[in-house]
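Same chain as my last thread, 394 residues:
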Amino acid sequence: MKQKAKLAQEQAAQEGAYRGKSSHHRRISKNGKKVIAVAAVVAAVCLVFLFVEKRSYHSYKVLNTSEQEDVVSTQYVEMDGDILRYSLDGVSVVDGSMNTVWNETYTMQNPIADVNGSKAVIADSEGTSLYICDKKGITGTVTTSYSIVKVRVAPNGMVAAILDNDENTWINFYNPDGSLVAENLTKIDDPGYPLDVAVSDNGVMMVTFQYVDGNKTTSYVAFYNYGDVGQNEADRIVSGYTYENVVIPQVECISANQYIALRDDGFSTYQGSQIPKESKTINVKQEIVSTFFSDDRIGLVFKNNNKDDLYTMEVYNMSGQLKFRKNFNVPYTTIKMSGDNIIMYNSSQICVMNSRGVQKYMGSVDGTIRDFFKIGWNKYLMVLDTGVSTIKFS
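reply #2:
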């Protein structure tokens, strides 16, 4: 009996071990199937990405057209998926089908605008009227004491304006409702004439000044902080950088802690949410004929002596790393980043590249092109002399 019991125990143990191994193999089999399924999904996503990345288009389809638009006196700017439309007598926001979301009337002689995400500012250049708005309507208005030279808006609706009265200049800072935060008097000899201004949504304003020191042209980039950090600093300037024999016509706030200065010999980047510091400077020897930028790209264009390629493009990331260099032969009059695309056009031709320099479309259009920009995935607004059309490439 004892021997039979022992044999029964050994048999039970063997069956248990078998069941354990079987269960283990089933788990391995199930896990293996999951791994294969995940790998298949990843492979499919990669194939779709490569297809979209490399795909080029040879024609376009008109989705809708508005021929009643006054394209001579009206300007159009992409605004977070919609379109800001402004002219001498008013401003409005319209959707991709040109349906009006809201509109406001005014009278301006020479309207200019700046858009940052869903916020915008429209001002009368050399006048005194300034309107701040978002995608729902006007949030504030300002009547300035001096002539407006330039205006810029932050992602939260804060606005900076350069003002001039022929003797001195001011750089004023406004809340989204139009109330004055600060005004800064600047003189031509100290710190110089303000060429451009940019503003972030954390109370930091970046200004590029230019002045002549003897026979040298000098640029000065200053960062003003209107929060707690800058309250004990002279004129609220928390950091500044001087560049001899350099002209800096344009500065940009990329994010709350990222800024760029586009120079005539390259560009400089700055980092810091409260006290921005210079992080990288790229100098080039060739003459820069055009610049463009996005949230993560800076592009420089140079003339090329090669008759088959008119220009050379260099595109960097915000760390100053060269992402690609590309020769191209597009006789453009305008180049810019729109969405995640590099867009070039002249009066009759359009060229679209992705941010890695892959050409997506090159072709001619019927009519005279006044403006062109991206408003959605494979969706663009084309402003012609005959009207405004929404198109997609095919």
